[in-house]
């Protein structure tokens, strides 16, 4: 290991209380159980980015609660911290929320009483802050026109300012969620009609969002004017479905119909069973999040009628064209990089191999790990296949480098397994800027690409070579209208060109926090 790489490795020593103490930049084990910090964040075993939520809605199906359960299960990759479902029945709302995975929160006992044909559901990803049941969605409120439930994916950039204003005017907040800000705006609207009150609230907020609103007789869906967060509509017989990703429709036997358009407002009325197409704002510069295609969305999902797996394969092919290197095998970091690795292998003719295997059953364990396991903590989630990589020159494909800590661990894991060379290829441009639109990212100073050159990053992660996909190669691989900026995608995390105004002094967090 070279000296630059050593700077990112943390030694651990056993403290007098039996807990691990860290000497370096980040601890490999903290908290009450072994993998409590295994997600994004400086204290985690992985520095991958964290998506902020997924939403699912059903209108006009007698098994709305059960459909929502399966739909949320398909969207589990978008959030594992908490989940919830709210159903509108003949008599009242019935809802249940809890901390944990969908399968941990729901069972026959709590799903059985949730009778109704209209429902919205939510899975939440937590940031580094405290996880709270109060922040689990859908949030349910009482207001002058009756019951109201709200679920959202995204982040409102002006929510802190709105909240301060509302608090000065007497509002009392029970959560730290942006969603509650919208509920207050709806409650304070001069309009009694819920559709007009929602429209009034949406015109006051800025940022990225996909909203589902549920009342006793209506379901309302809305997407931000830039289309930053994905949001799709489908059908199951006569029922309407809504989801953050189209893969949720496949799970419940539904069919994708179309993407909800930026600035669009869809209203479904229980009394008439009709769908009304409306707008609360004209569409602005289209800016679908590029990271959805690179990393977040499931490979079997389609966003803006572009299949995620196919787009990632094209990224891998373009990466090979831009940065060919002679090697023996190509391997991808599971799961989101597999498609790009296949594309790279197909373009170069270098065999694709499963050089890295993901352990999908790393459930929480309260058993204290040994000193050695703390230091090798990443192996709880990922293993190198020694017989495949030993004695080989390996091209390792990954989707992004955030802090560099995970890349270093994986490169060293491949070397320990006998790889003679490790060439790292990244299927996105250097990640240099934080996201303010619903993705959990570090501040700019913690992003390795913001403070180091490509060559410095290569040394820091102990790779023999390193190359990032060009931004032009990325947007062309995804596709989209040639006449729009970045072909209609938000690439602010790469080029610092944010499609909306960002408050300079605001410390903006997760919209679902």
Explain what you see:
Helices cover 26% and strands 25% of the residues. The protein is built from 18 helices and 27 strands. The protein is an alpha+beta fold and 513 residues long. It has two domains: 50-284, Glutamine Phosphoribosylpyrophosphate, subunit 1, domain 1 (4-Layer Sandwich), CATH 3.60.20.10; 309-359 and 371-480 and 487-499, Rossmann fold (3-Layer(aba) Sandwich), CATH 3.40.50.2020. The chain starts with a helix and ends in an 18-residue tail after the last helix. A seven-stranded antiparallel sheet has the order 6-5-7-4-13-12-14.
Write out the strand line-up for the largest beta sheet, numbering strands in chain order. 6-5-7-4-13-12-14
| Largest β sheet strand count, sense and barrel closure | 7 strands, antiparallel
N-C termini distance: 39 Å
What name does CATH use for the topology of the largest domain? Glutamine Phosphoribosylpyrophosphate, subunit 1, domain 1
Rounded mean pLDDT score: 86
Q: Which word captures the global form? A: globular
Query: Mind telling me the CATH class of the largest domain?
Result: Alpha Beta
Q: Which structural class do you get from the secondary structure elements?
A: alpha+beta
Stretches where pLDDT is under 50 for at least 5 consecutive residues are 1-45, 505-513
Number of domains: 2
